[in-house]
Amino acid sequence: MKVVVSDCDHKSMAPEEKVFADNGMAFDHLRCVSEDDVIRRCKGADIILNQYAPFTEQVFAALKPELRQIVRYGVGVNNVDLSAATAAGVQVCNVPDYGVGEVSDQALAMVIALARKLVPMNRLTHAGTWDYQHAIPIRRMADQIVGVIGIGRIGRAFSHKARGLGCRVIGTDPAYRPGSPEIAGVEWMPFERVIAEADFVSIHCPLTAETHHMFDAAALALMKPTACLVNTARGGIVDEAALADALAKGALAGAALDVTEGEPLAADSPLRGLDTCLLTPHMAWYSEEAGQELKRKVAEEAVRFALGTGIKYPVNALR
């Protein structure tokens, strides 16, 4: 089968090269950016490894009948039109189990940074102000309630770590229904109750039509004015204009975002410059080990598909 990498911004492709070479295969790295790039350069490919380039209905129409599989570098598949892929008979795969420790670590680090007011106090101390009273009030972490939105792999790992701090953990999932199976140590309850009771809310659900702008002005208004919101999942889950307004008005104590709806975050975003908003550049997934694991698993999934030995990470169901 013809294998191509539509795009990948990693410095080295050595892990992928090794996996393919060990199985008598190779690939071309095309560095596509736009829909037109993909249509023009990926024609004839059976398997495509993809990072950011868009796979739209028009792309699938142009690349059939050869294209049979797409493997995403990462968990999310928001740049792939899954309905169009399924209609075209293209198997879409991702890598959902790399970086679980890294993302849950970053979410917890963000919670602690907000709780201890590390970002504004770092700025003040560097500027010459040596006075802890600028951080008042700070509450004991073990007395806090942590709300978790999305109890998948990362949500469960984060919940376990939050409980390690002594926090009470409450949670829900977009698929939550009364009687849903419980996760050890997490008190299940409806979304509105979680965000109303929690001192810290950490988002760990996928971005779907249902979860887009789940945290809008109305949802943010349900949160305590002393509460903080953390998002290491997908940017579109949070209405950033509504969040900036809540933070500016003091209706919310703080927020920490590793992901934003448009990346990079616009230079004129009202979230920039707010001491109560901690921002990082979509880095929660990253460690040297996680990066290598991701690259290896993307290549291995493509090889399994090519050899017909059974894929591990299907996103869409084909007939």
Can you describe what's shown?
- With 319 residues, the chain is an alpha/beta fold.
- The chain has two domains: 116 residues, Rossmann fold (3-Layer(aba) Sandwich); 180 residues, Rossmann fold.
- Helices cover 34% and strands 13% of the residues.
- The protein has eleven helices and twelve strands.
- A seven-stranded parallel sheet has the order 8-7-6-9-10-11-12, with helices on both faces. A five-stranded parallel sheet has the order 2-1-3-4-5.
- Strand 3, helix 3 and strand 4 form a beta-alpha-beta unit.
- Helix 1 packs parallel to helix 11, helix 2 runs parallel beside helix 3 and helix 5 packs across helix 7.
- It is elongated.
- The chain starts with a strand and ends in a 12-residue tail after the last helix.
- 39% of the residues are buried.
- The model has no long low-confidence stretch (mean pLDDT 96).
